[in-house]
Backbone:
């Protein structure tokens, strides 16, 4: 059974969390309250990053957030879901696509998009026991227990993997992957002034060239348990 949650559940959960401000109250009033860590998964296209994140969420019994974050931002900003689906498919650069999709909503700027993204990710992470895929989450979440993971793989292997999975030619797969690599790197550089491939931005980098996806997930889970155990940890 997959641990991915529906966008409707995301909406209900975040509405409750925001209304009650539980995460804020814990920070302000309870020094020794347990905080469950968060796992963020940044990945290159064609590395199996999403599948690995799903395995990790299942093994830790965590919630998994990927496109649900984008769907919730669209809902909050009153943007059509179809526009968000186009965004996530990477037709243009990621930043450009958000801006183009939000053009129909007067006054919605890039800074407002980033504010929505930041709020959704921080509230989602506020209760821990969560795996968050991509979107700069490893750079947005601060001052709480966090395992930041990067999934990589040699370009040639990624090209073959995408070609087999999508029945593309190797040439087309290479074009798609290189385009997406540029988009994701640009998103991180423009919005966080960081290099997406800087290993020091992560706690663990896993190369899936010779490792099965579930084995990669086992490595991540082992690292998580070595750092945090199976229970919440107290923020210092």
Residues:
């Amino acid at each position: 059974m997959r641990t991915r949650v529906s966008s409707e559940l995301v909406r209900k959960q975040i509405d409750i969390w925001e209304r009650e401000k539980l995460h804020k109250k814990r920070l302000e009033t309870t020094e020794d309250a347990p905080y469950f860590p968060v796992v963020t998964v940044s990945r290159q296209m064609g590395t199996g990053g999403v599948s690995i994140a799903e395995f990790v969420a299942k093994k830790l019994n965590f919630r998994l957030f990927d496109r649900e974050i984008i769907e919730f931002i669209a809902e909050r900003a009153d943007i059509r879901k179809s526009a968000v689906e186009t965004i996530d498919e990477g037709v243009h650069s990621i930043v450009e696509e958000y801006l183009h999709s939000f053009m129909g909503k007067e006054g919605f700027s890039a800074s407002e998009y980033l504010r929505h993204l930041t709020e959704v990710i921080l509230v989602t992470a506020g209760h821990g026991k969560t795996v968050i895929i991509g979107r700069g989450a490893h750079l947005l979440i601060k001052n709480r227990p966090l395992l930041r993971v990067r999934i990589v793989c040699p370009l040639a292997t990624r090209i073959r993997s995408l070609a087999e999975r999508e029945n593309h030619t190797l040439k087309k797969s290479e074009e798609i992957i290189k385009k997406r690599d540029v988009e994701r790197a640009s998103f991180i550089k423009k919005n966080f002034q960081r290099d997406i491939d800087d290993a020091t931005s992560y706690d663990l980098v896993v190369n899936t060239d010779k490792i099965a996806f579930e084995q990669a997930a086992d490595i991540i889970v082992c690292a998580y348990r070595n750092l945090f155990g199976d229970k919440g940890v107290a923020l210092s």
User: Anything to note?
Assistant: The longest strand covers residues 146-152. The longest helix spans residues 170-192.
